[in-house]
Amino acid sequence: MFAGGLKPWHIIVLVVVLILLFGAKKLPDAARGLGRSLRIFKAETKALTDEMKDKDKDAKAKADEEPSIPDDQPSPINDKKVAQPSDSQRS
Fold it and tell me: What is the pTM of this model?
């Protein structure tokens, strides 16, 4: 349908149709309302994007704060000393 893209004469026809439908006096108000709506939409989109970035940062910070056990260190879970049977108990 729009394989050739939007050409300048398409925009001219659209403006003429809008002027005929709404009248020249209402177009500035309609354009102003459209601008406000777009500004609100952009602000809300930015707020959602920032919120998602903050959540990602919090998740990464929590992952970094969790203590990790190096491979060469014994695990605290297995650090309990197990009583070894003495020679007298083995016999």
Answer: 0.47
